[in-house]
Amino acid sequence: MDIRPTLSAPDDDPHLWLEEIEGERALAWVAAQNARTLSRLADSRYAADRDGLKAALDRPGKLPHVTRRAGWLYNYWQDAAHPRGLWRRTTESSFRTEAPEWEVLLDLDALAASEGEDWVWQGATTLPGTHDRALLRLSRGGGDAVVLREFDLAARAAVPGGFALPEAKSSAAWLDRDTLLLSTALGEGNATASGYPRRVRLWRRGTAPLEAPVLFETAPESMGLWGAVDREGGSERIVFLEKTGFYDTIVHLGDRTGPTARIPLPSDASFTWQAGWLAVKPRTPWTVAGTEYAPDTLLAFDFAAVLRGEFLPVVLFEPAPRRSLQGFFWCQGRLVLSVLDDLAPVYTLLTPGEWSAAEIPGLPRIGVVDLWPLDAEAEESDGTLLTLAQDPVTPPQLLLTSTAPAAPALLKSSSPSFDAAGLTVTRHEAVSVDGERIPYVQIGPREGSDPERGRAPVHLSAYGGFRVSRLPYYSATVGRLWLEKGGTAVIGQIRGGGEFGTAWHEAGRGAAKARSHDDFAAIAADLVARGVTVPGRIAAEGGSNGGLLIANMLTRYPERFGALFCTIPLIDMRRYTKLLAGASWIAEYGDPEKPEEWDFIRAFSAYHAAEPGRTYPPILLATTRRDDRVHPGHARKMAAKLQALGYDAGFYEPEAGGHGYGKDNGEVASFSALGAAFLRRAIGWEEN
């Protein structure tokens, strides 16, 4: 079906007033919608699910994730007693015990109470070398904008008269104890059209941040500009990261006076350097010395030679149709490659010079494996690597390995968050409209043990955008609210994601974005064809770009679903570039201001495609007021339009949460349990 709404001026939108985030009329509408949704769904079963999920998310036996700084292991921890969280640290020897002794550096609940602020932790950067000072990043309600505050770790308090910056989309890097490299969108003319910083400044202690000298700036139409510091070999080099678009970055090197050189590589290439070597992965075909290299080929160069304009590549990795390089990083002079080989995780260590390769032994080949350096600062690393291994029915395990390489040793295991007895994990493939095979992972009762075989209540999710790989992680939320109750969960690896590299992403980006939505619908159809379930028992959920996906299932494939939960979504693709960070995503979706691009964008602009007289499944749209990335107006307007057309469309919008389901485990549990209650009720599933 060709759904191509006619282009209308934004002033013709009768729901434009809902884009006024704090508008009196808009807030009154939100309050009425929230009350209606809660009155329908917030029963005793919902309350039990909410409380049970919160307890699972707060459980004492979950894994503490750690980063090492100057011999200390740092962790941020949230539980029932500390919903906002504790920033804390312990020694390596203590961490290895069953009950580590943690030294609390900051109690965010106490700080929020004393200051009357809705503080949410967004991280901290410590002063390299001594690590006795930190720059805290605190968000009000969970948005991307943060307050920067200098913190004394010994005193456990903010530094009197220290570095402090009001709320804005900002970041800062330590140059020395009295100097910061500041990137901020705060103040007149300092933000790009996407709302990110466009200037990098040299901020000295005791001076006003917006009077600090500007070292470099980018054009207002760029996505943003950020600064970083490279201290390899004991010398200081400033790195300016100029993002001209979501997939294009120009990297300049310089000093405290500004840029002095540009790394002469394609702007769409990913690269990193260490030990005199530069590793480069192009996103589009790249010709070097007369030879064309395919996207996702990993090449190595002598870094100094590249800066002189001399390119003599060494091929380190070549992609295959179902074998992709997910990432690469340096650790103590060795290059670590993260590869998905037909979705199986493989990690390889490369030694510069001879470029000998050694696969890290003993890592699982099923499920999901993440690996990263233990040390926060590259120049302080001793080659220790942390590994997190899990699958949908196996709780995460934290393993220790190194660049030696050596078989990983178990550090910690997470306690389970749900009962996985009788569950099995299988992989399948659907065939999309153009014949492409679309993989998906199914988690549910073992074959022959499911009393609802043929009518299984299915929770289906995917993402399909920005080259994000949607992998089968262990999920307390899906486990508690769906699997443990006898349901089936399905995770799709649709095009637009990065599971099979750049080609997979390109096949679902821009003019091909609607293809990723076709893929998701194909998975739903395949579940029916395989006899797993029927369309009315499929409940689909997706957030952000995945929310756009779910909205398109409503307008394009309504007959394949029983219910839809659409969260923190993009939906109005005519105006998305004008709302918050929307302009930064033109590289993913296209520019609706260009008629030739609107011609394909409108095919997946669900806000415009929704029309009267169709048979749509029930849908619940949910967002958060403090989401300063994807505008809450998308979900608000879609709900209002659907309701005006007479459809069963609910809406829910808590105040806090940012671009997520909540700022703490209690809010996440409430948001998720409400969505699950809606989905289960809408598909007629009366679970035990």
UniProtKB/TrEMBL annotation:
Lipid biosynthesis listed as a keyword: no
One GO CC term on file: cytosol
Keyword Protease found: yes
Keywords: Hydrolase, Protease, Serine protease
Any one Gene Ontology molecular-function term assigned to this protein's record: oligopeptidase activity
Cross-referenced InterPro entries: AB_hydrolase_fold, Pept_S9A_N, Peptidase_S9_cat, Peptidase_S9A, Prolyl_oligopep/macrocyclase
Signal peptide: none
Name of the protein described by the UniProt record: S9 family peptidase
Protein's organism: Teichococcus aestuarii
GO biological process: proteolysis
UniProt cross-references to Pfam families, sorted A to Z: Peptidase_S9 (PF00326), Peptidase_S9_N (PF02897)
Domain Peptidase S9A N-terminal: residue ranges: 13-223
Span of domain Peptidase S9 prolyl oligopeptidase catalytic: 482-683
